[in-house]
């Protein structure tokens, strides 16, 4: 089956074609970063309007890049949720309409399931079962994964997601939008030992997380500092170190609690170099096999939606004409296949 995947959950328009026999055939991504940069964050209405402008040309380009015609598409997968409702409606409306016009089945995909399964696009995909750490701008959760759709959420952020805390702290440091990657780059110039940030919720049992207080601690530290470039770099280093160490502690607890030996890290924050290096060290120290998606599949993209949708279409799932976007959608409510 050749599946067209469409991702429009936030501010990136992603389109891809995945072939269940030969793998990923093509993928295109358009980012709205420049559009939202002046506002310091995503403006939902502007995001929706830009998806409307870009989605059809991007679909045409993706199909052409794969060397296909529309009558060779066997199914359509689109992000149904969670995300910004207006942005989701653009992708779901276009995806469902194309499927109807082409006479092929359509399926709505859970955005976080797409991230969770993104490492499956690699030549060496992780076998089930495994523990998944999903960290992005909107979500931070630890999931026990027994198979596709067989998810148990073991812990999640009770307030800000890790990526959101990165972006907000970057803004406090005066960095441009999107700030998370810029903060990570600034942290590379920082020096250890100048600041010690707390590791939230690691002094109590459980796998839930909280990054709002860490962001507040960073805000107070920044207000009290001298404003020098090296000082800001030291703060960035201490903040990133606290987030990464917190995630490490929680992952180690989850692995011990479930007796799992495989760990998958996915979502936008999974591209963070320090996080990757720190969690990869679990292989050396504890024999844990650690998997990541390729860098291009860490952020929102159509390839992960095409892959996840292909698995569900192969299992016989499809949507009716009354498909609705779901801005809130618990991951553990999905049907197992």
Description of the structure:
The protein has 337 residues and is an alpha/beta fold. It folds into 2 domains: 2-116 and 297-333, ATPase, nucleotide binding domain (Nucleotidyltransferase, domain 5, 2-Layer Sandwich), CATH 3.30.420.40; 126-292, 2-Layer Sandwich (Nucleotidyltransferase, domain 5), CATH 3.30.420. Helices cover 42% and strands 19% of the residues. It has 10 helices and 10 strands. The protein has helices at residues 33-37, 44-65, 85-102, 111-117, 162-172, 179-187, 212-224, 229-258, 273-286, 302-314; strands at residues 2-7, 12-19, 23-31, 75-81, 106-110, 130-135, 140-147, 150-156, 262-266, 289-291. The strands form 2 sheets. The protein has a 5-stranded mixed sheet with strand order 3-2-1-4-5, with helices on both faces. The chain has a 5-stranded mixed sheet with strand order 8-7-6-9-10, with helices on both faces. Helix 2 packs parallel to helix 3 and helix 5 (162-172) runs antiparallel to helix 8 (229-258). It is globular. It starts with a strand and ends in a 23-residue tail after the last helix.
């Amino acid at each position: 089956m050749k599946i067209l995947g469409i991702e429009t959950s936030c501010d990136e328009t992603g389109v891809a074609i995945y072939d269940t026999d030969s793998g990923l055939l093509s993928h295109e991504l358009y980012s709205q970063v420049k559009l939202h940069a002046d506002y310091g964050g995503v403006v939902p209405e502007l995001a929706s309007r830009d998806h409307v402008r870009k989605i059809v040309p991007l679909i045409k380009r993706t199909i052409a890049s794969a060397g296909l015609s529309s009558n060779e598409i066997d199914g359509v997968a689109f992000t149904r949720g969670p995300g910004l409702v207006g942005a989701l409606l653009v992708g779901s409306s276009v995806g469902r309409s194309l499927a109807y016009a082409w006479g092929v089945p359509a399926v709505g995909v859970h955005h976080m399931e797409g991230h969770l399964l993104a490492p499956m696009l690699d030549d060496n995909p992780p076998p089930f079962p495994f523990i998944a750490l999903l960290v992005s701008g909107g979500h931070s959760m630890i999931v026990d994964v027994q198979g596709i759709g067989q998810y148990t959420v073991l812990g999640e952020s009770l307030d800000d997601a890790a990526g959101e805390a990165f972006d907000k702290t970057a803004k406090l440091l005066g960095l441009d939008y999107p700030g998370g990657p810029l903060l990570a780059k600034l942290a590379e110039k920082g020096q250890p030992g100048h600041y010690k940030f707390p590791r939230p919720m690691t002094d109590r049992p459980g796998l839930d997380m909280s990054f709002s207080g860490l962001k507040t601690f960073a805000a107070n530290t920044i207000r009290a500092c001298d404003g020098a470039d090296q000082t800001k770099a030291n703060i960035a280093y201490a903040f990133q170190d606290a987030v990464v160490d917190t995630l490490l502690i929680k992952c180690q607890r989850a692995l011990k609690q479930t007796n799992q030996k495989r760990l998958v890290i996915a979502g936008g924050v999974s591209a963070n170099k320090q996080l990757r290096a720190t969690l990869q060290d679990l292989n050396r120290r504890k024999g844990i096999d650690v998997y990541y998606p390729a860098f291009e599949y860490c952020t929102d993209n159509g390839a992960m939606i095409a892959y996840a949708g292909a698995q569900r279409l192969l299992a016989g799932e499809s949507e009716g004409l009354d498909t609705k976007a779901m801005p809130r959608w618990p991951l553990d409510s999905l049907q197992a296949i």
